[in-house]
Amino acid sequence: MHRYRSHTCGALRDSHIDQTVRLSGWCHRIRDHGGVLFIDLRDHYGLTQCVADPDSPAFALAEKLRSEWVVRIDGKARRRPAGTENPELPTGNVELYVTEIEVLGPAAELPLPVFGEQEYPEDIRLKYRFLDLRRESLHQNIMTRGAIVDSMRRRMKEQGFFEFQTPILTASSPEGARDFLVPSRIHPGKFYALPQAPQQYKQLLMMSGFDRYFQIAPCFRDEDPRADRLPGEFYQLDLEMSFVEQDDVFAAVEPVITGVFEEFAKGKPVTRNWPRIPFADAVRKYGTDKPDLRNPLLMQDVSEHFRGSGFKVFARMLEDSKNQVWAIPGPGGGSRAFCDRMNSWAQGEGQPGLGYIMWREEEDKSISGAGPLANNIGPERTEAVRVQLGLKVGDAAFFVAGDPAKFWKFAGLARTRLGEELNLIDKDRFELAWIVDFPMYEYNEEDKKVDFSHNPFSMPQGGLDALNTQDPLTINAFQYDITCNGYEIASGGIRNHRPEAMVKAFEIAGYGETEVVERFGGMYRAFQYGAPPHGGMAAGVDRIVMLLCGTTNLREISLFPMNQQAEDLLMSAPSDVTPKQLRELHIRLNLPQD
Asked: How many Å from the N-terminal Cα to the C-terminal Cα in the chain?
């Protein structure tokens, strides 16, 4: 018999009854039922109930076992007594009568329990992540992650993509976040950067004559952590294709992502025919470029009903042509208490408030509006608002006014809040969509300059001619995102592969040709020697796994994540280095003063 096991803890079935069996694993739970000990033994594959009574030669040692001790148990498989079967377990018809126990690894007192799924402080969970990972739900999430990555790989290869590995030590690149820098010992004073994405390398692969690239790529960004992005590093399904237009990328990617979601959605409906929503429409209808389409609420422009009205606050705003009034419908929200609650929420978000109208039925069965706005604009305009929004008695509408460029994000938050508060969101489905036609540029208020709004390597719609003749802030790009349930899960574009167009695009964002050649010399040179039209995208592996595992925190689907302060509590990183290491790197510390 094998030194440690003849079977795994998830293997025993009726066919093994009366066989001599050897198992090894962790003591998941130990129960004393009137002098008879029940040991639930767990390994990676499952759990088996082991039984030791006073007649067992191993009973004395069994009494000494504690949670999470690693043991080898020999015994005889037998059928569980009638009425004690556990249909929730694959091994639920069988138990092991213990004849011998060997302690392979005793455990100290546990800093957090492995049995059960109770909440525990995050710092403890991350410091003792090896214990946390033994917990059933987290352990299963990690296995699901691996299966999802396998599924992605298989589906990409079925689509004709080939997997490549691109360098980890590279040059700094303006991907929109800070680089992690690595000092060079051989070249004093110079630094490598960890890749924020394999963007330039995958484009260079297309220049090199490879046609369809993909990679499960590690990416590194020195940015502040948040729940939907891990600090420091993350993984993406990265891909690039030659001789393609936007529709070709969509046709290749859609079946991969749809297939992965359908495979792991546990029966929840998944969008088959993805809508394509222009960025401007997404902002206008949903107040976000990553709309949750499970929320049925659509915002509408109701400016005309307030222009010249008795509600002077909005009427004066509308004297400026750039200002608008948007309405967010609130079906079922037509009570004073609910409207006041939404108004208080808006004030908590730093807004002056959230105007509203409620609709009620009068004694003569007519419908009238109520609330300060209704009183100020009068019954005719109030009714026009109701008709436009398709609302009825018991409903409400909420209003945001001013320059849409400044308020659309808040309007989107209000739409989301209303959907949640009114229980309008169907949580048991996955709604996927393309967001297309992103602006090529945006105005950076902080630096008072035009900047790239998305990926700097994307092709502007209209090409070089648009860059030369249009107001930069009116140029759209062949850029696109995939969204799902309020999250951006992928982003990409058709690339700007003409060197003169590349230089012009960066020039508009404040980069001179010399700087472009210096920072992107490899790609710039490659474009001089026959560059194919190409495009691609990158899908966030971590976010996709998070959605499919039904959690809202990436730490629940990652092996060894950092905390919110970008610290690895398990490995004590970042850490100090020795003076010798600093001397070898020609680095002297200049730490901030307390």
From this structure: 63
Planar angle of CA 78, 7, 13, nearest 5 degrees: 40
Separation of alpha carbons 176 and 128, rounded Å: 33
CB contact at 8 A, 325 and 306? yes
Q: Which of 531, 521, 546 is nearest to 208 (CA)?
A: 531
What distance in Å separates the CA atoms of residue 553 and residue 559, rounded to the nearest whole number?
13
Tell me, yes or no, if the pTM score tops 0.85.
yes
Element (H, E) at 182: strand 181-183
Exposed, middle or buried, 293 (CB in 10 Å: 0-12/13-18/19+)?
buried
Torsion sign over Cα 16, 17, 18, 24? positive
Place of tokens 């995102």: 481
Rounded CA separation 183/561 (Å) = 24
The owner of tokens 């007594």 is: 81
With both helix axes pointing from N to C terminus, report the angle between 279-286 and 404-421 in degrees, rounded to the nearest 10.
Answer: 60
Gap between the Cα atoms of 258 and 489, Å rounded:
12
Task: Print pLDDT tens along the chain (594 aa).
Answer: 899 999 999 999 999 999 999 999 999 999 999 889 999 999 999 999 999 999 999 999 999 999 999 999 999 999 999 999 999 999 999 999 999 999 999 999 999 999 988 889 999 999 999 999 999 999 999 999 999 999 999 999 999 999 999 999 998 865 567 899 999 999 999 999 999 999 999 999 999 999 999 999 999 999 876 656 788 899 999 999 999 999 999 999 999 999 999 999 999 999 999 999 999 999 999 999 999 999 999 999 999 999 999 999 999 999 999 999 999 999 999 999 999 999 999 999 999 999 999 999 888 888 999 999 999 999 999 999 999 999 999 999 999 999 999 999 999 999 999 999 999 999 999 999 999 999 999 988 888 899 998 888 899 999 999 999 999 999 999 999 999 999 999 999 999 999 999 999 999 999 888 888 888 888 889 999 999 999 999 999 999 999 999 998 899 999 999 998 899 999 999 999 999 999 999 999 999 987
Check: CB of residue 199 under 8 Å from CB of residue 190.
Answer: no
Rounded Cα distance, 210 and 67, in Å: 54
Q: Could you give the CA distance from residue 355 to residue 351 in angstroms, rounded to a whole number?
A: 11
- Measured in whole angstroms, how far is the alpha carbon of residue 282 from the centre of its chain? 19
Spell out the residues 6+ positions from residue 48 whose beta carbon is closer than 8 angstroms to its own.
Answer: 9, 10, 12, 23, 25, 40, 41, 91, 94, 95, 96
Cα separation, 382 vs 375, whole angstroms = 9
What are the backbone dihedrals phi and psi of residue 26, each rounded to the nearest 5 degrees, phi first? -100, 145
Which of these, 466, 497, 318, lies nearest to 402 by C-alpha position? 318
Token pair 């299966």 is found at 147
Cβ-based neighbour number of residue 300 at 10 Å: 17
Q: Phi, psi (5° rounding) for residue 49?
A: -85, 125
Count of CB atoms situated within 10 Å of the CB of 574: 11
Beta bridge partners of 573: 568
CA pseudo-torsion sign 86, 88, 89, 91? positive
Q: What is the dihedral of CA 261, 264, 266, 270, to 10 degrees?
A: 10
Alpha carbon dihedral 145, 71, 114, 63, in 10-degree steps, equals 160
Rounded CA-CA distance 213/202 in Å is 7
